[in-house]
Design brief:
The complex is a heterotrimer of chains A (157), B (461) and C (145). Helix content of chain A is 20%, strand content 26%. Chain A has helices at 3-11, 33-43, 102-113; strands spanning 16-19, 24-27, 47-55, 64-72, 77-85, 91-93, 116-118. Chain A has a five-stranded mixed beta sheet with strand order 1-2-5-4-3. Chain A is globular, with a radius of gyration of 17 Å. In chain C, helix 1 (3-14) runs antiparallel to helix 5 and helix 2 (25-34) crosses helix 5 (124-139). Helix content of chain C is 37%, strand content 10%. Chain C contains five helices and four strands. Chain C is globular. The chains are: A alpha/beta (157), B alpha+beta (461), C alpha/beta (145). Chains A and B meet through strand 3, strand 4 and helix 3 of A and helix 1, helix 2, strand 6, strand 7 and strand 8 of B.
């Protein structure tokens, strides 16, 4: 592990580190999410490239995973932070106070998955109409397709 | 940098409270649309029920989205809606401007008018069909979207494409960068008033699109760069076509410079307008020409090279002031740099396969299907079920003309992606608009949006 | 058809003003049709009117999402008669490759369409063929508006 991450690993013992296809991934427990993010920013990860989520349904013990991709320009490296979020009233700390660029991304995660971000200045729907019911990217939200002649199904294998 | 005054209170109105009367125009199933279309031949002068409901809906949206300070009533601030249908907003972007006379005090971009559910669709398509989906996200640089997606799939599969495929990918993406910047310059010029720039930009683009049509079959949305390589080899005579483009374009760029570079009107409308500082740009995750215009030298082609692009020599133009003029200059300079790369690729194009030979991933040539049983079976399996990708997740990013275009792909071992997310550069670049447009004139709004160059397909996906 | 009708139809086709309603990828092809190489100015149509009040023809170029559908309807209602609608591209005609929750499956759910131009995106030649077909239909009186 690079010295940059070594320091982060020492400050946070609850974080497990993985290597996913030559990229560093830090699995951070929910309560350390914000503190770890601040520490990462101080260590040199100036840009938060992306915040997104995955709905694992029953494949993992906790239903959702929130993923944040960080980029360090000075060290030319990337880091991925992942945290697991449960199915009942899913919520996690917001990264917007640390990196304002995560604002829109967290709104999209809220819109598409229903995960709430504590501390976000404006958590409203961003892509769907304001009165839309449901969270489209959850696995239990159907794709909403119209029956088309000669095409049997839109099946996920 | 959070504006404390913008206290936009409640988190998104819970769907069941209060009962809202929405215009269910698209209702799945057999219900009829709930409003009556216009009678042919009658003018719509009177207000009818439909209009009231529409107004109601729009009125509610304004109220809920935007809470502004009542204490500045004596300045008479006005909230004006710009878009989503507006000739100068580059697609369906809606901006709520809080105006004090002609000065824009605050802006709120409202997006979602082009949301296509592409990430949900990606979960229904197989991995080789995935390119058709991502190509339509950023429709001005489809090759970059396809490249990010294909690189992500290849990383999960742990395969390397042949050198020729990698070189073809670089060639196509750099030509696409030229085409995209030409559109950006064209629309930027037209929005500010230089309508000839629109004609020039699209005229040059036609020669590049003709080349794309010859190689990939389509002028736009090519579905050419697929996991495993590219869809087809270069067309015969491609070197002459590229040579013609390389001969033609530098002279045209000089023509644009004659029109714009020292033009006092252009300078007055672009210098010092829409300024973003480097700290703001980094904080708001802005990448691409908008970031480089502020003086930060950050280009993914140099920092995290992909597809063999490190073998080619090129510079990365960087600006100083972070204003519209610098963003315009960077686009022109990037066209020149991309043409350099195209020339180098043409000269050093390696021979070999245009796609990986693994029959489990790329389909066999059509002729083989008549000869070999295995080829027929592979073809059948690949086009019905698709190839399975081992479980895992990865994030790959390329430098698109708008910034960092990344693809986050999570697979659970099946033949369809479990989760495909695109990190869209325009989505993040739009967050720069409120900063760039604060305390500027309405006319500068148009120039700023055009220079940030958002592509709404990318923003809304 | 009376001579007055014929004269009116002739005038309508020879000076149609399109309203700019470009949404997505098809909008780029519509722009390409309007500028230098595939010139729409030879039909008198290069000036895309920004305001629907001054336009005759609405070319719905691109995918119409749920959020955009009321806006589309409002712009259509704001156009004065006679007006025509061309649905450009697969997404506008039928929802295209995106058969999902987010898109209106065909703008004819929202506005009445006169000409459908298929393609993804339709090249400038296809769009021009669609426009010229519309001109022919108006001239011959097939579309009475």
């Amino acid at each position: 592990m690079s010295p940059l991450l070594q320091q982060l690993a020492e400050s946070f013992e609850n974080v497990t580190w993985e290597d996913s296809h030559a990229q560093d991934v830090a699995r951070v427990p929910g309560e350390d999410w914000e503190a770890f993010a601040r520490a990462a920013k101080e260590a040199g990860f100036e840009i938060c490239a992306d915040v997104t989520a995955v709905d694992w349904m029953r494949q993992r013990p906790e239903r959702f995973e929130v993923v944040a991709n960080l980029v360090s320009m000075q060290h030319k490296s990337r880091l991925r932070m992942v945290t697991s979020v449960g199915r009942h009233q899913p919520s996690v700390a917001s990264l917007t106070p640390i990196w304002p660029g995560a604002g829109f991304a967290e709104r999209e995660v809220y819109d598409m998955f229903g995960i709430e971000f504590e501390g976000h200045p404006d958590l409203t729907r961003i892509l769907m109409p304001d009165d839309w019911e449901g969270h489209p990217l959850r696995k239990d939200f159907g794709v909403g397709s119209v029956p088309v002649q000669f095409k049997t199904s839109h099946q996920v294998s | 940098m959070v504006d404390e005054k913008t206290e936009i209170g409640e988190r998104g109105r819970p769907p069941s409270d209060p009962p809202t009367e929405t215009l269910d125009i698209w209702v799945a199933g057999t219900e009829e649309p709930q409003f009556q279309p216009t009678d042919e031949g009658t003018q719509e002068f009177g207000r009818d029920e439909t209009k009231d409901r529409l107004d109601d809906q729009f009125g509610r949206v304004v109220q809920d989205d935007y809470v502004f300070d009542d204490e500045v009533a004596e300045d008479e601030r006005m909230v004006v809606n710009m878009g989503p249908q507006h000739p100068s907003t580059h697609g369906v972007l809606r901006l709520q401007l809080e105006l004090e006379g002609e000065v824009v005090r605050r802006t709120k971009p409202i997006i979602g008018y082009l949301h296509t559910g592409m990430e949900k669709t990606a979960e229904m398509l197989s991995y080789s069909q995935g390119s058709t989906n991502v190509t339509r996200m950023d429709y001005l640089s489809p090759m970059h979207g396809e490249l990010a997606y294909s690189l992500a799939v290849e990383r999960l599969l742990d395969i390397e494409v042949p050198a020729r495929a990698a070189a073809i990918r670089v060639l196509m993406t750099e030509l696409n960068r030229v085409a995209s910047h030409l559109v950006a310059l064209a629309t930027n010029g037209m929005d500010i008033g230089a309508v000839s720039m629109m004609m020039y930009g699209f005229r040059e683009r036609e020669s590049i699109l003709a080349f794309f049509e010859k190689t990939t079959g389509l002028r736009m949305n090519h579905n050419y760069i697929r996991p495993g390589g590219v869809a087809a080899d270069m067309a015969p005579g491609w070197k002459d076509d590229i040579a013609a483009i390389l001969d033609d374009l530098p002279g045209r760029l000089r023509q644009y410079d004659d029109l714009l570079k020292e033009n006092p009107i252009w300078l007055a409308r672009t210098k010092g307008v829409g300024v973003i500082s480097p700290e703001e740009a980094i904080a708001y995750s802005i990448t691409g020409p908008a970031l480089r215009a502020t003086g930060v030298e950050w280009d993914l082609r140099k920092a995290f090279p992909y597809s063999g692009i490190e073998q080619y020599e090129f510079d990365v133009p960087v600006g100083e002031n972070g204003d519209v003029y610098d963003r315009y200059r960077i686009k022109v300079d990037e066209i020149t740099e991309s043409l350099k790369i195209v020339e180098q690729v043409t000269e050093t194009m390696p021979k070999g396969d245009y796609r990986i030979g693994d029959a489990k991933i790329t389909p066999p040539p059509r002729a083989r299907i008549d000869e070999s049983m295995e080829a027929l079976i592979h073809h059948f399996k690949l086009f019905t079920e698709g190839f399975k990708v081992p479980a895992g997740e990865t994030y790959v990013a390329v430098e698109s003309p708008r910034g960092e275009l990344g693809c986050y792909l999570a697979s659970d071992g099946q033949a369809r992606p479990y989760r495909m997310h695109t990190r869209a550069p325009s989505f993040y670049n739009l967050q720069a608009l409120p900063i760039a447009m604060a305390d500027s004139l309405v006319a500068d709004t148009v120039a700023t949006i055009a220079s940030i160059d958002p592509v709404m397909g990318d923003v809304d996906r | 058809m009376t001579t007055v009708d014929k004269a009116a139809n002739w005038a309508r086709t020879r000076s149609m003003f399109p309203a700019s309603f470009g949404l997505a990828c098809c909008a780029i092809e519509m722009m390409a049709t309007g500028v230098a190489h595939y010139d729409l100015a030879r039909f008198g149509m290069e000036a895309f009117r920004a305001s629907p009040r001054q336009a005759d023809l609405m070319v719905v170029a691109g995918r119409v999402s749920q959020k955009m559908a009321p806006v589309l309807r409002q712009v259509y209602d704001q156009m004065p008669d006679p007006k025509w609608v061309i649905s450009m591209g697969a997404c506008a005609s039928t929802g295209g490759m995106f058969n999902n929750y987010a898109l209106v499956q065909g703008v004819d759910q929202v506005v009445p369409v006169d000409i459908y131009v298929p393609g993804c995106p339709p090249g400038p030649q296809s769009l021009m063929h669609g426009i010229l077909t519309l001109h022919d239909k108006i001239m011959s009186g097939e579309i009475v508006n």
